Amino acid sequence: MPGLSAVRVGPVEQPAKSAVIFLHGIGDSGAGWAFFAETLTRDTAFSQTRFIFPNAPITNIVANGNNPMPAWFDVYDWNDLHAKQDTVGFLKSLEQVKAFVKEQMDLGIDPKNIVVGGFSQGAALALASALVLPVKIGGIVALSGMASANIDFLTGRNSLNRETPVFHGHGDADPVVPLALGKQARALYSDTCGLQSYEFHEYPGLAHSSCPEEILDTTAFIKKTIA
């Protein structure tokens, strides 16, 4: 069982046949993305989908004066996200992602009907999960995400999700995770790591947030993937 709490929504109709696990960004909580479940369940294709929005642990963030805030891993410099990597925190959170996937499988969900997604820090974890999950899942969603400068620290890497579809959305006006870092992540995971079905979508004028167009595109991707 996962060691973290989560906001859980649905399914509208039992039994659940698919699951979406979505990881929030730094300083947020699972409740901050619960609207996503409401948006998707307006479509009857998601009436038997269970949504899980895990809550990140409270972590002292060096770049925040060592003050605590919800985060999946530490940040050492807001202006240089590659300055130093909290590999220990990152790997610990990846284990939680694995645990949430296993939980849904234990509840009877076929892994091919599970999507792992996230925003910002959560997106970084979602992308990395494609390399380390011990089962092939239905899809990966990364919104405003980046990749670690070096992923050699990732243990248990495998090729099970090499053909798993990936949706990566990014705003071209993002001041927190600039578009260039999003493109670096795409190059790393699609070119270097060999993920073969990697969609990258740019959204004009979008800052470090989501927008209706991105949510619509994400919804269509998930529907195509698991619904």
UniProtKB/TrEMBL annotation:
Any GO CC annotation of this UniProt entry: cytoplasm
GO biological process, one term: fatty acid metabolic process
Its EC number(s): 3.1.2.22
Catalytic reaction equation(s): S-hexadecanoyl-L-cysteinyl-[protein] + H2O = L-cysteinyl-[protein] + hexadecanoate + H(+)
Enzyme's top EC category: hydrolase
Pfam families on file: Abhydrolase_2 (PF02230)
Matches recorded under InterPro entries: AB_hydrolase_fold, LYPA1-2/EST-like, PLipase/COase/thioEstase
Residue ranges occupied by any Phospholipase/carboxylesterase/thioesterase domain in the UniProt entry: 10-226
Keyword set, alphabetical order: Fatty acid metabolism, Hydrolase, Lipid metabolism, Serine esterase
Single GO MF annotation: palmitoyl-(protein) hydrolase activity
UniProt function note: Hydrolyzes fatty acids from S-acylated cysteine residues in proteins with a strong preference for palmitoylated G-alpha proteins over other acyl substrates. Mediates the deacylation of G-alpha proteins such as GPA1 in vivo, but has weak or no activity toward palmitoylated Ras proteins. Has weak lysophospholipase activity in vitro; however such activity may not exist in vivo.
Similarity section: Belongs to the AB hydrolase superfamily. AB hydrolase 2 family.
Protein name (database record): Acyl-protein thioesterase 1
Native source organism of the sequence: Lachancea mirantina
